[in-house]
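Fold it.
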Amino acid sequence: MSKKYIIVTGSSGLIGSEACEFFVKKGYNVLGIDNNFRKKFFGPKGSVLSRKKELESLKGYDHYSYDIRNTKKIKTIFKKYKSQIKSIIHCAAQPSHDWAKNDPLLDFDINARSTLNLLTLFKEYCPESSFIYVSTNKVYGDNPNKLDIIEEENRFELSKKSKFFLKGIDESLSIDNCTHSFFGASKLSADLYVQEFGKNFNLNTVCFRGGCLTGENHSGVVLHGFLSYLVKTLVNSEPYKIIGYKGKQVRDNIYSKDLINCFWEYFLNPIPGEYYNIGGGRENSCSIIEIVDFLKKEYNSKSKISIDVNQRTGDHIWWITDYSKFKKTYPKWEIKYSLKSIIEKIAHKELRI
């Protein structure tokens, strides 16, 4: 029987590496593509080299240190394995708002153009497989900030009088009439192309519009990886700067393994051209201040906290995901990891407990 292959871009990152391990355990051969460009973006602390070494110890994993912008090299992988490829899990990205603003051409080439190139190769060489794209809730721009948000003691919250989204934000929120960050714009461009390859060509494509994707294997840094960086900084009692919104901005957090189980459910029963808001939901939501207070209490953190009053362009004041659409389509899926357990996993790895 011929071997079955899964292509994973950004294979050494948080979600990519989790996907690699998951599918290897399921008996698939995984072709990982990652050139550790994250180190260029974020410096040595952003490097994913150690994660790459862990993956290379797995039987059934092959690594390619290719730049996803190099279509000629990426094409060699598709040509070699063709119909043996059962899925492309596209996690590679330029993930920083700041980087995108400073170099929008590079951001677009990585996030949008490379996605289009991958979709074209997918259509040409393995159209019977599936294309799973890690999108972002930043495709909605700053429209979440226009909701009926009120300020509470330690967080911003949606007013109970609000007519919409009390459970969380679903896919009905508009992507128009708002300000996007350049990162949000490039990811939205890719998101739409993924959908249209599904709808126009009847291919199995899906966009997962994630909130905060997190876990102990995240190389969190100042510019990317909110929860990972926050926990690692505070458990080491290092200074932490909050950017904007008094630290009361709210995010929901989904553990990497819970997200990979979304991929698996879709992989087993794909639907062409779909898109889903995916995150930890209200039960896994927090503000920065709430996490700071928790870490000071639980880990005796002595970190000095400062606040930059200038928020990032297009940044969200309040985001909690309503993942009902995905749950209705794939009822076997569920959130298994609580916010407290996620924080403990990150802290314990950092402290080597």
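The CA atoms of residues 216 and 239 lie 20 Å apart.
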